């Protein structure tokens, strides 16, 4: 997996790194707030109870009109999805930058090829450890004398918990509404795990970037 075919990295730019870190951490916090809002609306659905007309998707291609609360949940869910996409873009830009910085600082190829910065999140099985590995490799290459920050493992553990919850709760928004009426526990657990991962991820981004910035200052 050594990235031997890549061109030499550009010189590290602390200002660009800090800008991308602020962008990524801010996007993570906004995304976490979006998932918390989703959890709040699911609690509202659970407390309201299933309407006498039944769930929105009644089977056989029949969908009843949404009530006001269900319609607002669709809006909250859509907003959370948009925030998640924007957050993914910001995070990947930051991850590519810290990986390149680490390569320039250490003078050796990264452990994982550049394509895994993107594919590592979506390829089954390897997505269980490659993204964390890229972050850990960048940190260790930038600050070899320091231990890997604990927040990296907190972030990744919460992300995996949220990922598992998302797999178990697959379906469209109407099916999620139906599950909120019948049993909210798994939905809340998944939402809170993703929100926690977003907060821990914001702290992780700032911690890794600060280590690189300190190393560049020493240089």
What would you note in describing this structure?
This protein is an all-alpha fold. It has one domain. The protein has 7 helices and no strands. Helix 1 (14-48) packs antiparallel against helix 2 and helix 1 (14-48) crosses helix 6. The radius of gyration is 20 Å and the shape is elongated. The model is unreliable at 1-5 (pLDDT under 50).
Largest sheet: none
Question: What proportion of the residues is helical, as a percent range?
Answer: over 70%
Number of strands: 0
Order of H and E elements: HHHHHHH
Strand content: under 5%
DSSP helical segment count: 7
Q: Structural class, from secondary structure content?
A: mainly alpha
Parts with pLDDT < 50 across at least 5 consecutive residues: 1-5
Number of domains: 1
The mean pLDDT is 90
For the termini, the CA-CA separation is: 28 Å
* Gyration radius, in Å: 20 Å
- Tell the overall outline: elongated
Characteristics of this structure?
70% helix, mainly alpha, elongated, 219 residues
List the helices and strands and how they pair.
Layout: H1 14-48, H2 68-106, H3 116-119, H4 130-142, H5 150-168, H6 173-182, H7 185-218
Task: Provide a quick synopsis of the model.
The chain has 219 residues and is mostly helical.
